[in-house]
């Protein structure tokens, strides 16, 4: 029976025509054969053969332009004489008949010819069926909206925990897809090598493992910020509100500057590695950041009392790089955010670390004393940082490591 199903799957497998700008092609087609009504094992649809049997093809792609993971479907209904009498295919979560006016799509022998929407992989019986509005929407999906979903979560693999995507995986998937953005050409061609046919039960086992491997591979394949270094005073904490232990330099409490909590939550939600790089007694930062629930937002805490030097000494930044599993060669893909031009910005610049000046406070000068204190970027409030990092991270693949200025 399995051999018979395999022969049927090959005999009726659809032929796909892809947009000439298409960046993604099917990895495999998983087939199921229905000789009576039944529930699809790979979609939400009930299958009711219009003839003697229905062949369901689950078309698996690693990537859709909006997210990692894509599973589309084609249903070929065959009568008792072995003739194709109906073809249906998926389109944006729905199911539509493939019909060019004769009740069927184009046919090559017993193979339905289907046109695949660029990037999104919805099926069309003919490109002319795509309206001007459809094409306009597709241009946005393949361009400005590329990568909007990161790793796909609305499928039964993710819902049952067959693969789990951490925040960083979503961010890296978005970055990869934003780099893949393209303009559909609406001219179509058949791919030379068709995707292999597998029983659905076999493909079902492969997909979650493959998604997991891709997510792991993005760590090295996709350019991204390795770590975000953050100062504390007047970057997170309002120094004017500090209350010190009498007779000590240890701060026991202080207020957050407006937007600091939201900024930290946003950076954590994006899966960034966050490293505190701050001058002062360790207990000061434990007290202030623990009070506001931010101490554990950091993956590591590099504090001058522990290191034995203050910024801009390179040893502070070397310790931060080491804590992130990085070296000086990775400086170009790290960021230092701070309010002190002579310490935060000068120290970061010396190692080729992207420097961002937090200009919220007026306690310290905003005027660089020399070229070594000129920041790469400047923000006025914490709320500006997540958006800036998102824009910069999308550009770092075009940069090359450099000896600073």
UniProtKB/TrEMBL annotation:
<dbReference type="InterPro" id="IPR023214">
    <property type="entry name" value="HAD_sf"/>
</dbReference>
<protein>
    <submittedName>
        <fullName>Pyrimidine 5'-nucleotidase YjjG</fullName>
        <ecNumber>3.1.3.5</ecNumber>
    </submittedName>
</protein>
<dbReference type="Pfam" id="PF13419">
    <property type="entry name" value="HAD_2"/>
</dbReference>
<keyword id="KW-0479">Metal-binding</keyword>
<keyword id="KW-0378">Hydrolase</keyword>
<dbReference type="GO" id="GO:0046872">
    <property type="term" value="F:metal ion binding"/>
</dbReference>
<dbReference type="InterPro" id="IPR041492">
    <property type="entry name" value="HAD_2"/>
</dbReference>
<dbReference type="GO" id="GO:0008253">
    <property type="term" value="F:5'-nucleotidase activity"/>
</dbReference>
<keyword id="KW-0460">Magnesium</keyword>
<dbReference type="InterPro" id="IPR036412">
    <property type="entry name" value="HAD-like_sf"/>
</dbReference>
<dbReference type="InterPro" id="IPR051400">
    <property type="entry name" value="HAD-like_hydrolase"/>
</dbReference>
